Amino acid sequence: MDVERDLEAARAGDPHALESLFGRNLAPLVAFIRARAGRDLMARESAVDLAQSVCREVVADLDQFDYRGEEAFRAWLFQQATRKILDRARYAGREMRARDREVAMPDSDGAAEALLACYASFATPSRHAAVREELARFEAAVAELPEAQRDAVTMAKLMNLSYGAIAEQMGISESAVRGLVARGLAALSAAL
After folding, report:
1. Which of 38, 81, 96, 134 has the lowest CB atom count within 10 Å?
2. Domains of the chain listed by start with CATH number
């Protein structure tokens, strides 16, 4: 699992390198998108489709990425996802995309099913339903966090970035990041 080697091979068009590079980041990327996008956008878009679109754009822009470690690549990938979310939310907010003219998408993006697959070997149908409910409650609780806390928690827990990397991305001190993560996790714990 050498990210730098996979990046070089992916730049050369090696499909196995692309699979390796994105395979280990796809599930956290989908979870990040679901947590960051909010209910309105998730009612219109599929988190898996957005994640695949992000990966496609990252592949096209690989030559622009300066490798500084796996954490830097993951941060870049999730930064691209944040841009995609903002772009899609902006597009969805235009008047030509009036909410009263739309039909809600069913929850068929596969993210919930992917999480449930982890439990498949020992979970009963009622446990599957309970997990779906818990996932919905968790996503709602994350959406209710103040933006700075939501960003810090998702970067720390979904992206697995260090507090230093988060501080750099957010433009605040590492101790401020620790505080945001602690308060965010406490709020999530209280809500759940």
Report:
1. 96
2. 3-123 (1.10.1740.10)
Q: Report if pTM > 0.70.
A: no
For the beta carbon of residue 97, count every other beta carbon within 10 angstroms.
Answer: 11
In whole angstroms, give the CA distance from residue 180 to residue 192: 18
Interval 74-130: pLDDT, tens: 888 888 888 888 888 877 766 445 555 554 444 445 555 555 555 455 566 677 677
**Exposure letters 25-44 (e unless 16+ CB within 10 A, then b):** bbebbbbbbbbbbbeebbeb
pLDDT, tens digit, 9 for 90 and up, residues 174-192? 999 999 989 988 888 888 7
Q: Following CA atoms 134, 139, 140, 145 in sequence, which dihedral angle do they give, to the nearest 10 degrees?
A: 130
The token duo for 50 is 């957005």
Query: How far is it, in rounded angstroms, from Cα 22 to Cα 10?
Result: 10
